[in-house]
Amino acid sequence: MHSDLVIRALGALAQEHRLAAFRLLVQAGAEGIPAGVLAERIGVPASSMSFHLAQLANAGLVTQRRESRSVFYAADYAAMNGLMAYLTENCCGGLPCEDAAACPPATPKETAQ
Asked: What value, to the nearest 5°, has the Cα angle with vertex 28 and ends 22 and 32?
């Protein structure tokens, strides 16, 4: 994944309603959710939801399809996995991150008292 796509994707997710919508779409699976239902679940006006979904689509994170008068949105799992792979490409000091033991959590820095 190219850094310009990563920046666009992270920028799209860096907003409360878009992040909530994307999480709902990831949970919904390939069937997706109609835009109106997303707006209701998140508690935003339909016009605002359209704007947020357009931002997610522009970032390549969601797909859309029309069924009659409804527009269904779904998470683009390939794009999501590509973003996750880009972010974790060099994690664990270059070692495979196949289990929790390979990537121990970072210890918090002690604060001076």
From this structure: 80
